[in-house]
Amino acid sequence: MNYMRNRIQIRSAAVAWFRRHPTLVLSFKASLAAGLAWVVVHPLGGVANDYPYYAPLGAVIATSATLARSVRDTVQALTAIGLGAGVALLAQTPPLPQLAALVLAAGVGVAVGSWHRLGRRSSWVPVTALFVLLVGDAHPWHYALGYAGLTALGALVGIAVDASVPQRAKARRDAGHGRPRRPHPARSRH
């Protein structure tokens, strides 16, 4: 009997401690997702051998306090990466010197990144454009597909971790669940 009571008390204390320190839960989820993404990407071969670090990056991008926020952040990040890669590939289409392509991609990337639907991930458009131009210089399509694809793979791992680790009650309330509804003005009693 004492054993069960002690076990329940320890579990209750641990749960209370994690509720007071939600950043530790988020840190745990991010590190778990990054590690799992690293393990998942290595046996794949091909472009995964060239850029395996983008899978853990995608996992960390996707990890958030709520599953809904994880999905939203992932969609925004992958959209920004795709747009940035497109900007870079278009900047390389005309035969321009590398400096001119870089200037064009940076300017167009910032302009495209101002699209409000990208939210907090808007800066990824010009950054991705510059990465594709400078890092993927010799093989821009190969690099762009590896960057986007492996980041997406890692993001799926991050979302799976978020779905499997319980959310904080406050985070669920903040997302709109459990929030008291205000009565509709037309239906209010006078």
From TrEMBL:
Organism the protein comes from: Nocardioides pini
Protein name as annotated: Integral membrane bound transporter domain-containing protein
Transmembrane segments: 21-39, 99-116, 123-141, 147-165
Ranges of residues in domain Integral membrane bound transporter: 36-161
Membrane topology: Multi-pass membrane protein
Start and end residues of each stretch annotated as Disordered: 169-190
Principal location listed in the UniProt entry: membrane
Subcellular location: Membrane
Keywords: Membrane, Transmembrane, Transmembrane helix
InterPro entries, per the entry: Memb_transporter_dom
Biased composition (Basic residues): 178-190
